[in-house]
Design brief:
247 residues, 5 helices, mainly alpha
Length: 247
């Protein structure tokens, strides 16, 4: 019996080093998994912060551009409004020089708003999965949905401006033809023809009158929308900076 107990104790003593090695190996593997999990979590967190910082930087650039475009559209709208108010008297007086003076500032065109979406594109292509805060995702998506809607309005505005410019070009072509006739009459009759006569088509005049007002109002509306979006961009930037600290 003593011999039997002694053999069991001997076997146990021999097994202890193996058991200890197994526990060490298990602990090493477990700690390795923990370290890898922590590393992945750390990298994802850093990547999420990088995306959010990118959005913040894009928003800061956008804010400056939004204000610049808004101011330029106000200028453009103001010129059109002045032209609209003066059209009646211009039609009565036939003063082409004054008409050209009023529309000359329109020849510079207007600034087009082109938002920066590089960081948002990265978020949309899988980056949002790294951000676990729904409030951050919702605020960013809401802002860029408004930007997309604004871009659609800009396309419609550009089409209206193009139609307005085409109508204006038609008047200029008519004016050049009328001027040549007047010059020919001047030479033939030796009498200066002083008064310029606008096209007398009531439909053309009404269309141009309406288009001038419509484009002016459209420019003003987009300018106000830009200012509203600009305020939202400021709020989102502040919100994202606060949220970054919690990630």
């Amino acid at each position: 019996m003593k011999q039997f107990i002694k053999s069991i104790l001997t076997k146990r003593r021999r097994a202890l080093p193996y058991l200890f090695e197994f526990l060490l190996l298990f602990l090493a593997v477990y700690l390795g998994f923990l370290a890898e999990s922590y590393r992945e979590s750390y990298e994802k967190s850093n990547k999420a912060k990088s995306y959010i910082n990118g959005v913040i930087n894009d928003l800061e650039i956008d804010q400056k551009e939004q204000l610049n475009v808004s101011e330029d559209l106000k200028r453009y709208s103001g010129v059109l409004s002045d032209l609209h108010k003066s059209l009646d008297s211009l039609l009565l007086d036939g003063n082409m020089r004054k008409f050209i003076g009023l529309i000359k500032p329109l020849s510079d065109g207007y600034k087009v708003y082109r938002p920066i979406k590089s960081s948002y594109s990265q978020l949309s292509n899988g980056g949002f999965a790294l951000i676990r805060d729904p409030s951050i995702i919702d605020s960013i998506n809401l802002y860029y949905n408004e930007i997309e809607h604004l871009e659609s309005n800009f396309i419609l505005f550009a089409e209206r401006v193009k139609a307005f410019q085409d109508a204006q070009l038609g008047w200029f072509n008519w004016y050049e033809a009328q001027k040549q006739i007047n010059d020919s009459l001047d030479l033939a009759l030796k009498t200066p023809v002083k008064r310029f006569v606008f096209p007398n088509s009531e439909k053309d005049i009404n269309n141009y009158f309406i288009m001038t007002r419509s484009v002016a109002m459209n420019a003003q509306s987009i300018s106000e929308t830009l200012e509203s979006i600009n305020k939202r961009a400021q709020r989102i930037s502040q919100f994202l900076r606060k949220k970054l600290k919690s990630l």
